[in-house]
From TrEMBL:
Domain of life: Bacteria
Protein name (database record): Histidine phosphatase family protein
GO molecular function: phosphatase activity
Record PANTHER family: BROAD-SPECIFICITY PHOSPHATASE YOR283W-RELATED (PTHR48100), HISTIDINE PHOSPHATASE FAMILY PROTEIN-RELATED (PTHR48100:SF1)
Binding site for substrate: 8-15, 58
SUPFAM superfamilies referenced in this protein's UniProt entry, alphabetically: Phosphoglycerate mutase-like
Active site: 9, 83
Species this protein is from: Paenibacillus monticola
GO-annotated cellular components: cytoplasm
Stored InterPro entries: His_Pase_superF_clade-1, His_PPase_superfam, PGM_Phosphatase
Length: 192
């Protein structure tokens, strides 16, 4: 059985402002670094063999904190698990989107990557990572929207309607070709 811990990156200033990040390469804020340290401490009591990260800075910084605490090297940066492309809405908050495109902005073609495209991209990337390390325990640090899409691609019956919190971990397993979710969006380590 292969086990994967899917982790959303720590918080950024844009998270706090409600700005769409997408492919914009933002760094963690101070709280994000504290959150990364907290998930790293939680994971230090478990056995993890490999750690992969999105190539975007906020995920990479989170993975670096975890890797340092666990005493393992980051195995690879994977562009296929970077956040969903936010198109023209990247860098904006809701009121700015309404001002620019009106209340029906969600129905317009603004260059956003579709849920389906993210589902395909993310689930293929996770299958490829798992295929490289059968039977291993693998951490993957990525982003909220792409992780939810990815999970839906791997486990179609899984309810992914709840947004993933910063540094939440979702643990999934693969036994032969069957994917299962042990837990979703766990943030017990943030009780500080």
């Amino acid at each position: 059985m292969t086990t994967l811990g899917l982790i959303r990156h720590g918080s950024t200033y844009w998270n706090k402002e409600g700005r769409i990040q997408g492919h914009t390469d933002n760094s963690l804020d101070e709280e994000g670094l504290q959150q990364a340290a907290a998930i790293a401490e939680r994971l230090s009591g478990e056995q993890w063999d490999f750690i992969y990260s999105s190539d975007l800075l906020r995920a990479r910084q989170t993975a670096e904190v975890i890797a340092t605490r666990l005493g393992i090297e980051i195995t690879g940066l994977v562009p296929e698990i970077r956040e969903m492309n936010g198109g023209l809405i990247e860098g904006t908050i809701e009121s700015e989107r309404v001002e620019r495109w009106g209340h029906e902005w969600k129905s317009l073609e603004l260059g956003l990557e579709s849920f389906e495209a993210g589902l395909l991209r993310g689930s293929q990337a996770i299958k490829k990572i798992a295929g490289k390390h059968p039977g291993a325990n693998i951490l993957v640090v990525s982003h909220g929207a792409i992780l939810r899409s990815t999970l839906k691609g791997l486990i179609p019956e899984l309810d992914v309607s709840e947004f993933l919190k910063n540094t939440s971990i979702t643990r999934i397993t693969q036994a032969e070709d069957v994917w299962s979710c042990e837990f979703y969006n766990s943030v017990e380590h943030l009780n500080f």
